[in-house]
Write a structure and sequence with these properties.
single chain; elongated; 154 residues; 58% helix; three-stranded antiparallel sheet; binds zinc ion; mainly alpha
Length: 154
């Protein structure tokens, strides 16, 4: 039996009708199946049911049973509360980053970036200059040696 994670398998006696949202797996490990009620008080009403309980035609057990409309209502409520939390977080962040502090931070960051770029460019120029200087020095030394050699020959 494949277990879908997310559903806690504890508190077996409180399962029936108390699952929040859409149930994915029963506490017994069985999958949840969608069924349509044929009972008189709830004709054609869809519900979620433990597959094990369905195949064994169990009645008044504590395996998962949940009306689909109630489950979906739970999901909608859960999602709307999540959306509210996100909205709240966004608002809090707006307060933190609002106004002068935020602008100063951006300005500082921009300044740091410019400084870094300038520094890198200067360093690059220096490095080039150094290698050029070395080349020049070598050429000068070779030139000197040649001159000295010629002088000695003469
Ligand atoms: Zn079950």
């Amino acid at each position: 039996m494949s277990n879908i994670s997310g559903a806690s398998s504890g508190s077996s006696s409180t399962w029936r009708g108390r699952v929040v949202g859409v149930p994915t797996v029963c506490w017994c490990g069985a999958q949840i199946v969608g069924k349509i009620s044929k009972s008189d008080p709830n004709p054609y009403r869809r519900y979620f049911r433990c597959a094990y309980a369905v195949s064994n035609k169990l009645m008044d057990d504590n395996h998962v049973f949940k009306w689909v409309d109630e489950a979906l209502l739970n999901e909608v409520e859960r999602l709307s509360s999540e959306a509210k939390t996100l909205e709240q977080m966004v608002k809090e962040n707006e307060i933190v980053f609002d106004g002068v502090e935020y602008e100063k931070m951006v300005f500082d960051k921009g300044l740091m970036k410019v400084e870094k770029e300038v520094f890198e460019k200067v360093e690059c120029v220096f490095r080039e200059a150094k290698t050029n200087m070395k080349k020049m020095m070598i050429l000068v030394i070779i030139g000197c040696m040649i001159i000295v050699g010629f002088v000695k020959l003469i």
